[in-house]
Amino acid sequence: MCPVYPHNFIQVNTLFEVIRAHGGRTAWSDKHPAYDLVNGPSGAGVEDLFTPEVNSNDSVTGQDTTTGFHSVQRNDALKVTSILNEIDGSNSTGTPIGIVPTIFGMNFQAVSVGQKLKTGNPKDPMDCTDPTDLTTCLIGGYADALGKTPNSGLQSGLDFVDAQIGQMVLELRHKGLEQSTLVIITAKHGQSPIDVSQRQQVKDAPYGATPGIDQFTTDDVGLVWLKPSRQQKDYAAAQAYLQAQAKSLGIMTLLDKSDLASLYGNPFGNNRTPDFIAITVHGLIYTSGTKLAEHGGFTHDDRNVALMVYNPGLVQNVISDQVETRQVAPTILQALSISPKELDGARRENTSALPGIQ
User: Cβ distance 13 to 329 under 8 Å?
Assistant: First the structure.
């Protein structure tokens, strides 16, 4: 039996594969080994892939790093070090190789955890000054409905990320690379709800009783797959069951095969597509815990993220055009004088580079 890796599931080439084909060196740092998927179908897109597991135990608390504001920052700091090493001409672990990657970058988790975690970890003196009194702990999420005022825990994460990005830019400047480097800062997703007064906590157990169920995944959305052997037989019954459970599960709209075919592919011909996607009411989170927000859904909070592009040669400007994060990869290729059409996804979907960047 042959092993199956995350990159085996990718059906189009990645930015990293295109750059490698042009002789560039590629590097990336992320939160799980599962981000092997960035390697693309070839399995070889990223030459230097550094993935310290974000759910590993923290050195201070001994608990999952995502259970504290500062523990997740310590995990992020490992990735920051990898980037600084690469700017200095080493690989991610600090071994000198005499070359700086053509493309490199990382994922920060500090802001995401700051948005989701209700209170700091009492075992971390940087999160809670008195471990016996939760009122001394940092607080996650936002203090207002519009997300203009971060609470203390989230503010700590924002300050941390700001300082680390600044450190990277200073190192680029020190190495004479700032002028030739395009820096792009964005996010894969937001979190919902920003307004914590709209938060609704719901258990997802009823999904497990769906006729023909094989797998369901829930955050602030419900993704449901039926067993391939039961799909034809149980589809109508599964749809009727989920519609009957709509009130208890907070389902606002249930997308079925007729809706999904044009969006992601017909689940009857593509088993990667869920058989159903449950779009939930705004603010709903499938959880039995205390987290404040989640992602994966279709809400405005989920789908609108920051996007900043920096280079000393760019004129400071705010561009109000409607753009998508999938335009980031074509923009990077354009900056490297490589045709964005070499990306299978960009070519098929006619995705252009971001506007206003020369």
Answer: no
Contacts 24+ apart (CB under 8 A), 236-242: 237/211, 237/212, 238/210, 238/211, 238/212, 238/213, 238/275, 238/276, 239/276, 241/209, 241/210, 241/211, 242/207, 242/210, 242/276, 242/278
Q: Would you say residue 358 has pLDDT above 80? A: no
**pLDDT tens digits for 121-152?**
999 999 999 999 989 999 999 999 999 999 99
Q: What's the mean pLDDT when you consider all of the chain?
A: 97
- 17-57 residue pLDDT tens: 999 999 999 999 999 999 999 999 999 999 999 999 999 99
| 292: number of Cβ within 10 Å | 25
Q: What 3-state class would DSSP assign to 137?
A: strand
* Residue whose C-alpha is closest to residue 52's, from 120, 95, 107, 96: 107
Domains and CATH numbers, the chain: 6-181 (no CATH), 198-286 (3.30.1360.180)
d(CA 79, CA 60): 18
Q: In whole angstroms, what is the distance from residue 138 CA to residue 349 CA?
A: 44
Structure tokens at 328: 């980031």
pTM: 0.95
Three-class SS state of 223: strand
Contact at 8 Å (CB) between 164 and 155? no
pLDDT, tens only, 263-285? 999 999 999 999 999 999 999 99
d(CA 196, CA 153) in angstroms, rounded, equals 15
| Cβ-contact 231, 212 below 8 angstroms | yes
